[in-house]
Amino acid sequence: SLSPLKVWWFSKSSEQYRIAGELELIGAEADGERRTARKQQWGNLSDKAREQFYWHRPGEAYSGEPTVPAAGRGADGKVLEPPPEFLLMLLHPRRVHYLRLTDNYAQVDAAAALAADGEGDVEGSWSAARVNP
Predict the structure, then answer these.
(1) Pairing relation of β-strands 126-131 and 105-111?
(2) Residue pair 67/53 in contact by the 8 Å Cβ criterion
(3) Which of 3, 31, 60, 112 could be bridged to 125 by S-S, CB 3.0 to 4.6 A?
(4) DSSP letter (8 states) at residue 114
(5) Is-contact 130 106, C-beta < 8 A?
(6) Is 73 exposed, middle or buried (0-12, 13-18, 19+ CB in 10 A)?
(7) From CA 46, how far away is CA 30, in angstroms rounded?
(8) Closest among 19, 24, 15, 27 to 2, alpha carbons compared
């Protein structure tokens, strides 16, 4: 199935993208390129955003001020490793529905069917078709 569906709306250009595909969550157990990507995204967060991952669990009874490493950094000033709660979410798109309301243009782009072994599609194999808005 093609879920979840993510929608991006750009109000200035009156364009909408509906993207369906599969989500992949990358956690602390990841290795290789995924581990590198997770660590890079952690480092790209603002200092304040990194600090929030060290707060107490949201929604639970107040338990006092948490001990938060300033800016998510260690004593040496380097960014700490991402905590287990930090997940990188990758969206592997399979279908994109584009709508431009300025001239009512709509198009659907779809990835090729999965290969026989179920391991993915042919690299760069997408179809595009104009559709009614």
Answers:
(1) antiparallel
(2) no
(3) 112
(4) P
(5) yes
(6) middle
(7) 23
(8) 19
DSSP assignment string, 28-70: TT--HHHHHHHHHHHHHS-HHHHHHTTSPPTTSPP-------G
Positive or negative, the CA dihedral 40, 41, 46, 51 is negative
What is each CA distance from 60 to 56, 64, 67, in whole angstroms? 8, 11, 17
Query: Which among 27, 20, 86, 15 has a CA at the least distance from the CA of 53?
Result: 86
pTM over 0.85: no
- The model's pLDDT over 90-126, given as tens digits with 9 standing for 90+, comes to 988 999 999 999 999 999 999 986 555 555 545 668 9
Q: Are 128 and 118 in contact (CB under 8 A)?
A: no
Q: In whole angstroms, how large is the CA radius of gyration of the chain?
A: 20
Backbone angles phi, psi at 17, to 5 degrees: -120, 125
- Residues 67-78 have pLDDT tens digits of 888 888 889 989
Pull the structure tokens for residue 14: 């009156």
